Amino acid sequence: MQAFEKAVRTGARPNVQRQTPTQSRQEKPVLRVRSENGDDAGPAYSFGSINEVPATVLNGVILGVLRKYGQTTDEELVRQVARELGFLRAGRRIAARIGRRIADLIAAGRVRRADGDRLCAS
Fold it and tell me: Are 101 and 112 in contact (CB under 8 A)?
C-alpha cells in the first residue's frame, strides 16, 4: 500500500503485476502492487465480491484500520477498509456492507464516535 500511495503522491507509475485466471470462472484476477525493491505491497486480502467477505474478517479489518489510523470519518473509513480488502473503489454495495458492519460494531461497543462525526476503536 505504501508503494501505491507514494506513486500516487509523486505521479510515478508503480510496478504493477496483474495475475489473471487461468482455468475456472471462480478464480478472480488479483492486483498486486510491488515496491521498487520487489516486496509485495498489495492488499492482504483479495475477494471477488464484498459478499464473499466473512463478517469476522470485515470486523477485524475495520478495527485494524481504526487502530492504525486513529479517529476517522465514516467515508474515509469505508474507503480505507475497501482498499485493505483489495477493492479498487468503494461502490454503493461495498459502502453499504461496510457501513452495516460499522453500525454493528458501534452497537456492540467496539467502535464509538468521538469529536463529532469521527469514529475510533473502543
Answer: no
